[in-house]
Amino acid sequence: MRKWEDDAADVAPGLLGSILTSMIGGEHTAIRVVEVEAYQPDDPASHSFGGKTRRNASMFGPPGRLYVYRSYGIHWCANVVTSPEGVGAAVLLRAGIPIVGIDVMRRRRGREADLVNGPGKLTQALGITGLHDGADLTGDLLRLELDDRPCRYETTRRIGISKATSTPWRFVAVD
DNA sequence: GTCTAGATCGCCT
DNA sequence: GGCGATCTAGACG
Predict the structure, then answer these.
(1) pLDDT, tens only, A59-86
(2) Which helix (H) or strand (E) covers residue A12, if one does?
(3) Does residue A123 lie within 7 Å of nucleic acid chain C, judged by its CB?
(4) Which of A47, A91, A92, A116 has the fewest CB atoms within 10 Å of its CB?
(5) Which fold has domain A8-173?
(6) Which bases of strand C sit closer than 7 A to a protein CB?
(7) Where on strand B do bases come within 7 A of a protein Cβ?
(8) Distance from residue A149 (CA) to nucleotide C7 (C1'), in Å?
(9) What torsion, rounded to 10 degrees, do the Cα atoms A83, A88, A94, A99 define?
(10) How far in angstroms lies nucleotide B10's C1' from the CA of residue A140?
């Protein structure tokens, strides 16, 4: 098991290829993570920039937990907290490949395709909502299994933000 | 108390 | 490829 406490930009590529399992609602679903973005404490695009608040509290550790927030009033976005307590760093889970419970994901998503190819879609397919903010990722409800084998990936600029757009902290797995 | 921007998605042309 | 939907935290008065 890799350490959580490292730099988010350092940990992020290590999350590629890992398996995220959800037992939310008593239904078993799992995906392979193929796209992530790192957000750092000193990063203007990060929610933790400017200090701890009620919304981003779970982003300030302890590590190995989930930070969930609502985006554009409609979608949920899930992050893996990577920082020790008191520090705000996390890795946004942007996309994955369905592994287990594809029929469940289709039902939750209300469509056949495009099940987990975006942050909001990922949370919907796995049943993740604001209720799971702060959830332990080594627990029974949610579990993130890291893949020991190194994964080939590309590094690009982040998407959908208006600040620090040139920082190359988006990581996409390549086959 | 009121205002505003936002780490997006899905439908429309 | 463009645009409207829809809600919450944070900033300001």
Answers:
(1) 997 999 999 999 999 999 999 999 989 8
(2) helix A8-15
(3) no
(4) A47
(5) 3-methyladenine DNA Glycosylase; Chain A (3.10.300)
(6) 5-11
(7) 5-10
(8) 41
(9) 30
(10) 33
| Boundaries of every domain in chain A | 8-173
SS3 state at A150:
coil
Nucleic strand B under 7 Å from the C-beta of A130: no
User: Which pLDDT score is estimated for A16?
Assistant: 95
pLDDT tens for chain A, residues 1 to 175: 555 656 899 999 999 999 999 999 999 999 999 999 999 998 989 999 988 888 899 999 799 999 999 999 999 999 999 998 989 999 999 999 999 999 999 999 999 999 999 999 999 999 999 999 999 999 999 999 998 888 899 999 999 898 898 899 999 999 7
For helices A102-109 and A119-126, the axis angle rounded to 10 degrees is 120
Which two structure tokens, joined as six digits, stand for A33?
A: 């993570």
